[in-house]
């Protein structure tokens, strides 16, 4: 396989790496520096500027003061002060309040490990088996295991791979390690502590899909995770075959097509569907985007077999899931549990017993709040409550209610308004209205505004932005009156 290089992709795929390099050198971007990059690459300056402005981690003036986290776990901490330079989340929700650069994920914050987070033997047994049995049998094994994507949508992985393969044309494979949801830090845990398992899963996916290009897209701030992954990759059988790509932020990059636009050097906004990425994704190629945890599960399946994978979890959702727990718990961190485990059991073990657990936020800014007494559902894909709470990417924040609810709901509403990419009107105009009404007079919040945002927004960010607001108002209306 030829060595991976950004030069094998169309020229505009060099835009984001070039902007990131400029940003690192200068500390911020200016119209002149963006124009210079655009000129070098032969891209219209307006398009380069548009791409730069859509990336939330870029600054456009000299930074003044230290960046500190304004995410939910930090905002609830007694030591929290409104930061001079607020960050939506610094992903150290297990040790609030957080400031400065990202740190390696601490091993002691792995509270419960299973096949994904447990130790690796540093062999490539899963990849060797994949090579022995061939692509068709690899796909069968993934299908038999019942693996569903762990990014939050839970789409069957084998079905996604087959959908891309059926075109018979060159495929792009993208590992999504953008992980931009406040309160979720499990991909960072995997990449920092078990990078070999993720690399092996990626290698197996490459074996099955024979992609023309493979990209590992890692959050632009997650340097320790990127370094650990890069080291493991360099020491692996797929060394030199994967193009490393760093992001520049944006919760919307959780939407696959926005991520592909970012790689293509375009404004990082979702594309209308259809076409689906598996039909026409990166530069028009059928494209498979898989989350880090999904790829780690692929490695487990090829090593231990589909039956062993299915032995843990629920029949409709086999395997384990890594939960990120933070907020008012004694033992925050990551918990790898079999799917189907009652959430209340995990919360008890984490030190948030039922009698003290007044509320939980499930699913972050796209999910919703639940009174602690209702947090008894099994850990399974889907909604926990019609007002919004859901498993999503596995972020669980424990709260005191009603004391924390107002601040937590405002933090989520502010995050969604800030992260709206602005492409569609219901989300662009609606999410600031949600924030304004929540902070002022929620009685002004017409049900049809909530419905319009939920039903008419283009992507999940807008469609699910109403969850934290609806659920907070449904369960604790007195807090906002
Ligand atoms: S819903 Fe929001 S984030 Fe999604 S495309 Fe519309 S404006 Fe952008």
UniProtKB/TrEMBL annotation:
In terms of InterPro entries, this protein maps to: Nuo51_FMN-bd, Nuo51_FMN-bd_sf, Nuop51_4Fe4S-bd, Nuop51_4Fe4S-bd_sf, Soluble_ligand-bd
Which domain of life does the protein's organism represent?
Bacteria
* Molecular-function GO terms, alphabetical: 4 iron, 4 sulfur cluster binding; metal ion binding
Give yes or no: UniProt keyword Iron-sulfur: yes
Name of this chain's protein = NAD-dependent formate dehydrogenase flavoprotein subunit
* Domain NADH-ubiquinone oxidoreductase 51kDa subunit iron-sulphur binding per the UniProt entry, residue ranges: 406-445
Keywords in UniProt for this one? 4Fe-4S, Iron, Iron-sulfur, Metal-binding
Q: Which Pfam families match?
A: Complex1_51K (PF01512), NADH_4Fe-4S (PF10589), SLBB (PF10531)
Family statement drawn from the similarity comment of this UniProt entry = Belongs to the complex I 51 kDa subunit family.
């Amino acid at each position: 396989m030829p060595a991976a290089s950004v030069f094998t992709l169309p020229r505009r795929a060099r835009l984001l790496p070039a902007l990131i390099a400029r940003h690192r050198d200068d500390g911020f971007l200016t119209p002149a520096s963006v124009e210079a990059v655009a000129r070098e690459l032969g891209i219209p300056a307006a398009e380069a500027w548009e791409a730069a402005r859509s990336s939330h981690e870029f600054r456009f003036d000299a930074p003044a003061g230290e960046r500190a986290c304004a995410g939910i776990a930090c905002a609830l901490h007694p030591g929290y002060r409104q930061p001079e330079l607020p960050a939506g989340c610094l992903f150290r929700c297990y040790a609030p309040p957080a400031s400065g650069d990202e740190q390696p994920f601490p091993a002691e914050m792995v509270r419960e490990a299973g096949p994904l987070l447990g130790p690796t033997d540093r062999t490539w047994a899963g990849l060797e088996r994949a090579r022995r049995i061939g692509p068709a049998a690899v796909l069968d094994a993934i299908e038999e295991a019942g693996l569903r994507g762990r990014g939050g949508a839970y789409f069957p992985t084998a079905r996604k791979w087959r959908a891309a393969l059926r075109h018979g044309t060159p495929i792009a494979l993208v590992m999504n390690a953008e992980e931009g949801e406040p309160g979720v830090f499990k991909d960072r845990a995997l990449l920092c502590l078990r990078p070999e398992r993720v690399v092996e899963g990626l290698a197996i996916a490459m074996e099955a899909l024979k992609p023309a290009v493979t990209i590992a897209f890692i959050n632009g701030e997650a340097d320790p995770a990127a370094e650990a992954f890069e080291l493991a990759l360099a020491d692996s059988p797929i060394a030199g075959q994967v193009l490393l790509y760093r992001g520049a932020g944006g919760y919307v990059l959780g939407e696959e097509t926005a991520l592909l636009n970012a790689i293509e050097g375009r404004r990082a906004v979702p594309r209308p569907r259809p076409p689906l990425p598996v039909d026409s994704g990166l530069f028009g190629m059928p494209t498979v985007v898989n989350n880090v945890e999904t790829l780690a599960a692929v490695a487990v399946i090829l090593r231990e077999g589909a039956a062993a994978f299915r032995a843990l979890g629920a029949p409709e959702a086999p395997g384990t899931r890594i939960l990120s727990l933070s907020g008012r718990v004694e033992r925050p961190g990551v918990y790898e549990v079999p799917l189907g485990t009652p959430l209340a059991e995990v919360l008890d073990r984490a030190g948030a017993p039922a009698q003290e657990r007044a509320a939980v936020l499930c699913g972050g800014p796209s999910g919703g709040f639940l009174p602690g007494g209702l947090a008894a559902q099994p850990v399974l894909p889907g909604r926990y409550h019609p007002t919004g709470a859901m498993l999503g990417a596995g972020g669980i924040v424990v709260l005191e209610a009603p004391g924390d609810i107002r601040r937590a709901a405002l933090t989520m509403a502010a995050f969604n308004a800030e992260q709206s990419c602005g492409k569609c009107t219901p989300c662009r105009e609606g999410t600031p209205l949600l924030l304004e009404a929540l902070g002022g007079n929620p009685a002004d919040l017409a049900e049809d505004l909530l419905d319009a945002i939920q039903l008419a927004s283009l992507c999940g960010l807008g469609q699910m932005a109403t969850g934290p607001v609806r659920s907070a108002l449904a369960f604790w209306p007195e807090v906002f009156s």
